[in-house]
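Example record

One chain of 272 residues, shown exactly as stored in the release files.
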Amino acid sequence: MERPIRILVAKPGLDGHDRGALIVAQGLRDAGMEVIYTGLRQTVEQIVQTAIQEDVDCIGLSSLSGAHMALFPAVVNELKQRGIHDVLVIGGGVIPPDDVRQLKALGIAEVFTPGSTISDMANYIRAHVKPKTWDEPFETPSQIDHIGIAVRNMKEALSLYENLLGFTVIHEETIEDQNVHAIFVEVGDVHIELLESTSEDGPIARYLAAKGPGIHHIAYRVQNVEHWIARARQAGYQLIDEAPRSGGQNKRIAFVHPKSTQGVLTEFCELI
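Predicted structure tokens for this chain:
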């Protein structure tokens, strides 16, 4: 069964009138669509971020303040800057015909002015919503790069992995900005990253206080971290890192929040 079309109805800028937007939102719900309404006085960035988080198919912009020529195209441009090209953007309001033509030239798919019906809007949306696509060819992660394990005491942990299991330590470093001491142990093609906090309030210390020692994250080896950040963002996953950062073993990394990955902190990891 296909999911209903998801629409974000948004009021960008300082426009304080939303009666029309609320009527449209309810009408599209009655037409069988899922509608998220952002409320008044939303910034362009807030609108696009909500659209990403809610994984919408269409953004419907409403403006009665006269700022449509600046705000509507700004939403289209923000989507493009984030690598998103498959969200339909439409507009509505008291908008002169000349402005309608210009808005369409700037990327607004359609503009609904007074006299348009809910049926007109719903039919247009159904006919023009695009399937989700990605900017780059899809390639699965090549392998699990490593499994991160939070430990209270590195010496005791190494007794298990070196002495009992016979694995070899291949790398050791302190990651200062994360307040963590990391040791990598080689297990075939996969590494185990032992993580010991170097401060009482670091992220590993907080994890240990909440959950105790154990598996902290799984890292997947990818070719392009930026691509995977964009892919996760576009699919509506909650990112911890909006841009790559430096990780252990001189890798470029980014994390996805466990709330949106079945409870497992997920890392994308790119060799440099």
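Notes: The chain has a mean pLDDT of 91.
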